[in-house]
Amino acid sequence: MSPEASTLASTGAGDMPRLRGDLALVAEMIEPGARVLDIGCGDGELLAYLTRAKEVDGRGIELSQSGVNACVRHGLSAIQGDADRDLADYPSDAFDYAVLSQTLQATRNPRLVIEHLVRIGRHAIVSFPNFGYWRIRLHLLARGRMPETHLLNHAWYDTPNIHLCTLKDFTALAAELGITIERSVTLDGAGRPFSLDPRGSLANLLAEQGLFMLSRRG
To answer: Measuring CA to CA, how many Å separate 59 from each of 5, 68, 208, 210?
Structure first.
């Protein structure tokens, strides 16, 4: 989660934390009262909102101890864990929704992580930055160096983002794995949606990030 999103400590008991644009769209996809696992939950921004606004049964996994501590301070259920190692321990269909927001590109084995997401949850919701975005392409073409954006804001030598992909890469992998894309949204950098088909070349060029709801076929 972005540092500026960490506003939970200052919100009162009756106040709703304001969500980052893409997280607001994630929240819209989740039914009230659902069982939700938020992988890479950060300081619990999404979990806190879902717990208050939709009364979900929410659980979080976060790699950083500081993020887990923040969640616990806010009364959220979260444990320290790694998506690459720990998702295998969860039983199938344990949750209604498994959420992986802006984390897929930082996993060591994204293919296996996606397979676990659709096994653990009846629905999986995944968002990630689109490496096919036109500004990234132009930066590589004009400067010949790895680009930095506000979504990919690390230098190449210290970035946690080790498996970058485009929207077309992701939809091709979903097809290869036999995963159904139930819903998809293309977004700009601020999380505002475009009316573009994420499977198309125009979306792959213009969208800065993608958001997908997935499920197993059959």
So the answer is: 19, 11, 28, 24
> Which homologous superfamily does the CATH classification assign to the domain defined by 17-131+163-216?
Vaccinia Virus protein VP39 (3.40.50.150)
Q: What is the pLDDT of residues 103-143, one digit of tens each?
A: 999 999 999 999 999 999 999 999 999 999 999 999 999 99
Q: Name the token pair of 208.
A: 């800065």
Ranges of each domain in the chain: 17-131+163-216
HSE on the CB side for 80, CA within 13 Å? Answer: 8
> How do 35-39 and 95-101 pair as beta strands?
parallel
Gap between the Cα atoms of 193 and 196, Å rounded: 9
Which phi and psi angles does 182 have, rounded to 5°? -75, -35
Separation between Cα atoms, residue 63 and residue 40, nearest integer Å:
7
d(CA 55, CA 52): 6
Tally of CB atoms within 10 A around 142:
9
Tell me which amino acid residue 11 is: T
Check: CB of residue 123 under 8 Å from CB of residue 214. yes
Quote the CA–CA distance of 57 and 54 in Å, as a whole number.
Answer: 9
Please list the residues that pair with 37 across neighbouring strands. 59, 98
CA distance 119 to 122: 7
Condensed to tens digits (0 to 9), the pLDDT of residues 185-204 reads: 999 877 888 888 888 899 99
